[in-house]
Amino acid sequence: MVHSIKKVVILGSTGSIGRQTLEVVRSLPDHFKVLGLAGGANVNLLKEQAGEFRPEYIYCRDCHKESACNSRFIPMEEMAALPEADVIVVATPGGAGLQPVLAAAKAGKVVALANKESLVSAGEIVTGIVRENKAKLLPVDSEHSAIWQCLSGEVTPPSRIILTASGGPFRSLTKNEIDKVTPEQALKHPSWKMGLKVTIDSASLMNKGLEIIEARWLFDMHIQNIQVVIHPQSIIHSMVEFADGSLKAQLSRPDMRFPIQYALTYPERVVNHTLPRLNWAEVGKLDFEIPDMTRFPCLGLAISAGEEGKTFPAALCAADEVAVDLFLKGKISFGQIPELIAKVLDAHQPVSKPDIDDILAADAWARQKVTELAGNF
Ligand SMILES: NC(=O)C1=CN([C@@H]2O[C@H](COP(=O)(O)OP(=O)(O)OC[C@H]3O[C@@H](n4cnc5c(N)ncnc54)[C@H](OP(=O)(O)O)[C@@H]3O)[C@@H](O)[C@H]2O)C=CC1
Ligand SMILES: CC(=O)[C@@H](O)[C@H](O)COP(=O)(O)O
């Protein structure tokens, strides 16, 4: 089949998703050209990537314009809207991902979306701008890529989405034990190698809560029809149930290059011999459990914020981002992450039908509130 070479922009190229995106690009040189790269603090890696992939455009948060490399230095929002770009990979984490997603959506781009917080905080606004400008949101998050793939070819909406969760490293610990774990323990994810923030969110099950809200916007489902099942092997990436009770699931080895490649080559599927195949003899069996919201209160907090809507999800996201950072810096315990978020949500004065300024104000308020509350601990 004849295919054109897609020009790809990668925001967050020095992170876990960014590096794996570049691995996919490297393994399929006839399919992609890197048009732009953006990173934060890891200036040396960004320079190395720029040397190898020779992007026309670059952005680096922590370096001076002239020191990055030979590429043209432009802001991330401008890079996300480049007219010649075929696909924009947004893998900048947390609140830093929102403005690039909005810029790409306003420019009608195809967005391979790894950043989940933008949809959690401002799902209605982002999906509205996507629709108005005929942009496309292609999920990279493994669970949402799985659901997207399961829905392919279906003409009736699903009755239920079942998100799988690894359960994280503390799946079998008691509440008391979980509350006291160290950052080092929490960063040992059993099945995925990811950035710091999403790894801590996985350990607290906040990640699954954020993913419920993300799925709500991506697939236009009520939160009550999105459920979570613990599946420690992380081989089934999620499932969809239809009106007739039939279920579809998507499976692969836990390797983010699968959903990244699918989003980049969509609607085609492309042979890539560097991607690992499932060995059923090695897999042996697949296990499932129901999540325990008493031991993992972050999941319940996210579901409540998602059901309440308004500016609650934006406050949840921002509070979580700051709380995770405080935990990683040793300033609060793991058990204090949900405690702080619950207090922030209790104190939040929500705005109904928020516009983007309301979302940004809720985000700023929650960041300040959580810092203030943590100071009292
Ligand atoms: N990792 C994974 O497997 C998965 C991740 N996701 C989501 O994808 C997103 C990225 O995750 P992940 O790759 O793990 O994160 P990482 O922390 O590994 O990488 C983050 C990237 O963003 C850059 N960055 C951070 N802050 C800024 C900023 N303010 N301005 C510009 N660049 C910035 C970092 O630059 P630098 O390193 O140079 O500082 C780095 O390139 C998150 O939203 C996460 O939830 C979703 C599913 C799976
Ligand atoms: C790899 C990916 O997409 C993550 O969202 C991952 O699923 C996190 O693992 P948990 O299932 O432990 O949250």
Automatic annotation (TrEMBL):
<dbReference type="GO" id="GO:0051484">
    <property type="term" value="P:isopentenyl diphosphate biosynthetic process, methylerythritol 4-phosphate pathway involved in terpenoid biosynthetic process"/>
</dbReference>
<comment type="function">
    <text>Catalyzes the NADPH-dependent rearrangement and reduction of 1-deoxy-D-xylulose-5-phosphate (DXP) to 2-C-methyl-D-erythritol 4-phosphate (MEP).</text>
</comment>
<dbReference type="InterPro" id="IPR003821">
    <property type="entry name" value="DXP_reductoisomerase"/>
</dbReference>
<feature type="binding site">
    <location>
        <position position="17"/>
    </location>
    <ligand>
        <name>NADPH</name>
    </ligand>
</feature>
<feature type="binding site">
    <location>
        <position position="117"/>
    </location>
    <ligand>
        <name>NADPH</name>
    </ligand>
</feature>
<dbReference type="Pfam" id="PF13288">
    <property type="entry name" value="DXPR_C"/>
</dbReference>
<keyword id="KW-0521">NADP</keyword>
<dbReference type="GO" id="GO:0030604">
    <property type="term" value="F:1-deoxy-D-xylulose-5-phosphate reductoisomerase activity"/>
</dbReference>
<feature type="binding site">
    <location>
        <position position="208"/>
    </location>
    <ligand>
        <name>1-deoxy-D-xylulose 5-phosphate</name>
    </ligand>
</feature>
<feature type="binding site">
    <location>
        <position position="141"/>
    </location>
    <ligand>
        <name>Mn(2+)</name>
    </ligand>
</feature>
<feature type="binding site">
    <location>
        <position position="116"/>
    </location>
    <ligand>
        <name>1-deoxy-D-xylulose 5-phosphate</name>
    </ligand>
</feature>
<keyword id="KW-0479">Metal-binding</keyword>
<comment type="pathway">
    <text>Isoprenoid biosynthesis; isopentenyl diphosphate biosynthesis via DXP pathway; isopentenyl diphosphate from 1-deoxy-D-xylulose 5-phosphate: step 1/6.</text>
</comment>
<dbReference type="GO" id="GO:0016853">
    <property type="term" value="F:isomerase activity"/>
</dbReference>
<dbReference type="InterPro" id="IPR013512">
    <property type="entry name" value="DXP_reductoisomerase_N"/>
</dbReference>
<dbReference type="InterPro" id="IPR026877">
    <property type="entry name" value="DXPR_C"/>
</dbReference>
<feature type="binding site">
    <location>
        <position position="142"/>
    </location>
    <ligand>
        <name>1-deoxy-D-xylulose 5-phosphate</name>
    </ligand>
</feature>
<feature type="binding site">
    <location>
        <position position="14"/>
    </location>
    <ligand>
        <name>NADPH</name>
    </ligand>
</feature>
<feature type="binding site">
    <location>
        <position position="189"/>
    </location>
    <ligand>
        <name>1-deoxy-D-xylulose 5-phosphate</name>
    </ligand>
</feature>
<feature type="binding site">
    <location>
        <position position="211"/>
    </location>
    <ligand>
        <name>1-deoxy-D-xylulose 5-phosphate</name>
    </ligand>
</feature>
<dbReference type="Pfam" id="PF08436">
    <property type="entry name" value="DXP_redisom_C"/>
</dbReference>
<feature type="binding site">
    <location>
        <position position="143"/>
    </location>
    <ligand>
        <name>Mn(2+)</name>
    </ligand>
</feature>
<comment type="similarity">
    <text>Belongs to the DXR family.</text>
</comment>
<dbReference type="InterPro" id="IPR013644">
    <property type="entry name" value="DXP_reductoisomerase_C"/>
</dbReference>
<keyword id="KW-0464">Manganese</keyword>
<dbReference type="InterPro" id="IPR036291">
    <property type="entry name" value="NAD(P)-bd_dom_sf"/>
</dbReference>
<dbReference type="Pfam" id="PF02670">
    <property type="entry name" value="DXP_reductoisom"/>
</dbReference>
<keyword id="KW-0414">Isoprene biosynthesis</keyword>
<feature type="domain" description="1-deoxy-D-xylulose 5-phosphate reductoisomerase C-terminal">
    <location>
        <begin position="137"/>
        <end position="219"/>
    </location>
</feature>
<feature type="binding site">
    <location>
        <position position="15"/>
    </location>
    <ligand>
        <name>NADPH</name>
    </ligand>
</feature>
<feature type="binding site">
    <location>
        <position position="115"/>
    </location>
    <ligand>
        <name>NADPH</name>
    </ligand>
</feature>
<keyword id="KW-0413">Isomerase</keyword>
<feature type="binding site">
    <location>
        <position position="207"/>
    </location>
    <ligand>
        <name>1-deoxy-D-xylulose 5-phosphate</name>
    </ligand>
</feature>
<feature type="binding site">
    <location>
        <position position="211"/>
    </location>
    <ligand>
        <name>Mn(2+)</name>
    </ligand>
</feature>
<feature type="domain" description="DXP reductoisomerase C-terminal">
    <location>
        <begin position="251"/>
        <end position="368"/>
    </location>
</feature>
<dbReference type="GO" id="GO:0030145">
    <property type="term" value="F:manganese ion binding"/>
</dbReference>
<feature type="domain" description="1-deoxy-D-xylulose 5-phosphate reductoisomerase N-terminal">
    <location>
        <begin position="8"/>
        <end position="123"/>
    </location>
</feature>
<keyword id="KW-0460">Magnesium</keyword>
<feature type="binding site">
    <location>
        <position position="16"/>
    </location>
    <ligand>
        <name>NADPH</name>
    </ligand>
</feature>
<dbReference type="GO" id="GO:0070402">
    <property type="term" value="F:NADPH binding"/>
</dbReference>
<feature type="binding site">
    <location>
        <position position="202"/>
    </location>
    <ligand>
        <name>1-deoxy-D-xylulose 5-phosphate</name>
    </ligand>
</feature>
<feature type="binding site">
    <location>
        <position position="195"/>
    </location>
    <ligand>
        <name>NADPH</name>
    </ligand>
</feature>
